[in-house]
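Q: I have 427 residues here and want to know how they pack in 3D. Can you give me a structure?
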Amino acid sequence: MNRICTKTAVYQVFAVSTLAVFISVQATAGTVTTDGPDIAIKTKGGFAVATVDQAFSFKLGGRIQADFDQFDGIYTKNGKSANEAYFRRATLEVSGHAYHDWQYAFKLNFADDGNSKWDEASIAYTGFKPVKVKVGRFDPDFGLEKATSSKWISTIERSIIYDAGDWVNDNQDGMGIQMSASSGMLYGSAGINRGKDNEDSNGRNNNTYNLRGVIAPMAEAGNVLHLGLNYAKRSTEDFDGRIRSRLGVRGTTEDKTNGNRPVLASSRGGQFDGDTAWGLEAAYARGPFSVQSEYLRRDIAAKSGSMMKDREASGYNVQLAYTLTGEPRGYKLDGGKFEGIKPNDKQIGAWELVYRYDNLTVKNADMNPVGKFYDTEAKVHTVGVNWYANDAIRVSANYLKAKTDKVVNAANDDSGDAVSLRVQYVF
């Protein structure tokens, strides 16, 4: 036990030391070349080394996200106010190229409890241009907001519609292969992912299949028109069909004493054996203004002869964002995603206002005492402000108001309020 604790402590010290080095390095920006010149070193936005012909490159970067949440009502077990402060993410990232056509990416997230996790460990081949083939551990491609990095989403947490089925864009600590390509105004991807410890009775891995297609006639910062379609299916023998949601506040599960994670569909072990999902996505941006919306539907099939009925979980969101200081949100067609806001004035930074409405409904969520099936619903309003102090630091504040139907906590609350704060450093 002491040996394990010692190893964990060493890893944590190494991680903190490494992060400190990169933060200090970022104080100097610019490019250094050798007498060749054949090597360029960049220290702005992480630490990067590359040959001039881009045959080889190496970049170190990462993010730190420190959060504080205050919440009450349905967000807690007893309805009384609770709060939690925690590191949402402390991630070290390594990426680069080798021999022109090979790419690699490693992302290690350091957890508070010492159980660090590989968010990504992948190798990709780009020699079949414009097609890229990637293998390893990475999240499946499903949805606009999920494709956008947590560094650059406009709210602190992503939409609750993804709680309808987290498997659609979570690698489940497994391995996968994905083909993707972007050309003209089109982007598409197709992937197969095998989650860890997800096997049938014969020991064969069950798979998750993902398809995503995007068309973007306008695809540059401040001038975006984005439309997308998603499909996902997983092979599984049986599962419990449970659906839970944090209702947009991560602190509800970080708080082990009084935090509440409402159950929108009950756990019924072995009663379901079919699972598919599809989604729509749309976005428009003009200058500092952007609007985006997504729809997700998950169909859960009950086993033949089961006491349960088929379940349908569907959700949608609408988000409006406006940058008061005039900067547009970045956008990248390769990946079909939004990127960050870069302040024009490093003294005052960039200020962004955001509003999002989320709605998630589950049909045939469970049976009441007399055996009649009923539906559940959750609604969340989020209002927020983001201050991009510079290219590295972002400070965010969100106010959330949640309301549920046929879902309550132990104190019979079906609504709640929360305030979330975040300080982020990206390098």
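Q: Anything worth noting?
A: Helices lie at 2-25, 144-147, 251-254. The chain is about 5% helix and 55% strand.
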